[in-house]
Amino acid sequence: MSNNKGIITALEKSELADIRSIQSHSKTYLKSLFVDEQNLYGGSVWTDCTIGIYDKDTLDVVEVVEGPLGTIFCLDSDKSYLFSGSGDSRVDIWKKTDWSLVGTISGQRHFILSLATDQDYIYAGGIDDCTNVFDRESFEQVASLEGHNSNILSLATDENYVYSGSGELWWGGPGSPRPPEFESAVRVWDKKDWSCVHVLEGHTDNVNAISVDKKYVYSISDDASLRVYSKSDWNEVHRVQLPILRIDAFSVDEDSLYLGCSDGSIRTLGKKEIDG
To answer: Across the strands, what pairs with 51?
Structure first.
């Protein structure tokens, strides 16, 4: 995790102990973080516009690449490439062998706030209230997933579906009067024909992150709740309401859920508690 002074803190999963804090590569602060098997990646805000690549074990800086002319709102990666989505509407594709820029997609007309990838497609969501789908080989747009009436703040994908979470980037924030047209939902899109097959409702504020596994869809929100939906019938099967202002960040592994909360805490929930 990172703070507004550009400090990166690594936590040991076994004890969730603070094992190391370092100054990030950025002269400002980091807006996005992503980790894969080899590296940790950090994207900075518009006054810096860089992406730092760190060795996941040592937290040493491996490379710093000059990003686009906008805040790096989101990052994703696979075995060969790093993907970044930014405030200048671009998705940039970076080759991991030498961190060279090998492709650029105009992903939205305005800010790109969320990214997801699979072996066939790149998904970019943002201020345009839709998720645009691009072919991995040609970079050509093949679909636009429209139906939300608010910004696409989060994306996830699995073998059969794309999941998009909505909210508004610019409004008064938690505790402010909520516009009546404000949608806070997770939509499920079938990859076979890009149709919306279900809307997962329940959140009353921005859906900040989504994760999926074989059985469930997990979502967290500015309404300070974690909601869990079953893939078998799309019904909500579990909800955790925390006594805080909001849940900002979220990650899932095989056994646990990790929640980054507005009070500065990281809270965990075992998946066995959901299966119950």
So the answer is: 43, 65
